[in-house]
Design brief:
With about 375 residues, the protein is mostly helical. The chain has one domain: MFS general substrate transporter like domains (Growth Hormone, Chain: A). The chain is about 85% helix and about 0% strand. The chain is built from 15 helices and no strands. α1 packs across α9 and α5 runs antiparallel to α6. The two termini are about 35 Å apart.
């Protein structure tokens, strides 16, 4: 039990830093564009490099942790996060910035996947969804803290904040290196032969494509909302950062509710609630007035909360013996969506202006509703 508790604490620390990493670029995008004179397409390229790194980290972590354990994987991933924070703070050129963001992505993708797989391995039955939800809550706290801090400081203090984040990442790596991990899988059962099993499972593949759009949605909200508020809604940068914080606050509040008063809701009701909140939140972004727009961001964030914990909880139950590899595969598909739709958003906003952002949001929501309908049908057929 003691080992489990320490492992949970370490996971929550790592995912907290991952939460910071996932919103940092979008939060300081105007600063980066000004520093390097980037166009929207070049900025979109940064958002593309990040998920490519995330993809690599997400693909590699599963088979490695299933074979050899979590210690080395999580320690190296924390080091890569530190490199990313330092690069964003000090890189003298777009090229070096891009390289550091690439390492940032690898570290983030590995921490995201490995901590999720470990929490799933440490949990049983419905507790998988609840504990993954708590893990996601700490991600939300990290993601919430960064734009809030940046809204309260001047741009010349940004380097100090990034240096502190890098130090915390290094310390996290030391913790991952020193703690003891419980043995959670039978190593002999981990082979590449499981991949066709994933592909042939219709429910599993449909879930991965739901996560394809879930991941994309999280990315465009984190990366493009500040620019949308500034360029389209005419809101100053500080208030735009606060609005982004509202979306993360919504995610935190909803995950707190899922872990407490809503913990008895089954996964179908949680996803239905998520999609309903998406529709209501996007309506808030279409209304006039900062108050309505901010409420819309809060509601969108609340809608984002159930997606990954619920879907990964289902995957963890489906493939208990190879959870790391199953999570790796699912996150690979999810991050492809992140990459494609992020880059597409950059192209659309470059040619049609930041108002294209809201149409991307509505399009992603529509696809998620359709895919969820297919998931429900497949679940009924499996029963």
């Amino acid at each position: 039990m003691k080992n489990k508790t320490i492992a949970f604490i370490a996971n929550f620390t790592g995912i907290f830093l991952f939460g910071i990493s996932m919103v940092i670029i979008g939060s300081i995008l105007p600063v980066l564009k000004s520093r390097f004179g980037m166009t929207d397409i070049e900025a979109g390229g940064l958002f593309t490099i990040l998920p490519i790194g995330l993809l690599i980290g997400s693909v590699l972590f599963g088979p490695i942790v299933d074979k050899f354990g979590y210690r080395g994987v999580l320690s190296v991933a924390s080091l890569f996060l530190a490199i990313g924070f330092l690069g964003i703070a000090h890189a003298p050129s777009i090229f070096l910035l891009t390289v550091c963001i690439f390492f940032f992505g690898i570290g983030g993708g590995t921490i995201n996947g490995a901590t999720s797989a470990l929490v799933s391995d440490l949990s049983e039955g419905k507790a998988k969804i609840i504990n993954l939800n708590w893990l996601g809550m700490f991600y939300g706290v990290g993601a919430f803290s960064m734009p809030l801090v940046l809204s309260l400081i001047s741009d010349n203090k940004l380097v100090v904040v990034l240096n502190v984040a890098a130090i915390l990442s290094l310390l996290s790596g030391v913790i991952f290196l020193l703690i003891k991990y419980p043995l959670t899988v039978d190593k002999e059962k981990i082979t590449l032969k499981v991949i066709p099993t994933f592909v042939k499972n219709k429910l599993f593949m449909t879930i991965t494509f739901y996560l394809f759009f879930q991941s994309a949605f999280e990315a465009i909200v984190n990366n493009w909302s500040v620019s949308y508020f500034i360029d389209t809604l005419g809101i100053e940068q500080g208030k735009a950062l606060v609005a982004l914080s509202y979306s993360v606050l919504g995610l935190i509040v909803m995950r707190l509710l899922i872990g407490s008063v809503l913990k008895n809701l089954n996964h179908n009701k949680l996803i239905f609630l998520s999609l309903l909140l998406f529709v209501l939140g996007s309506a808030g972004l279409l209304m006039n007035g900062y108050l309505f727009n901010s409420i819309g961001m809060f509601v969108l964030g609340a809608g984002l909360a159930p997606g990954f914990p619920v879907m990964l909880g289902i995957v963890g139950e489906m493939f208990k013996e190879v959870s790391g590899t199953a999570f790796s595969f699912a996150m690979f598909i999810a991050l492809i969506g992140n990459t494609i739709i992020n880059y597409t958003t950059g192209l659309l906003t470059n040619y049609y202006g930041m108002q294209a952002y809201i149409f991307v949001v509505l399009g992603v929501i529509s696809f998620m509703i359709l895919i969820y309908a297919v998931i429900r049908r497949l679940e009924k057929l499996n029963k």
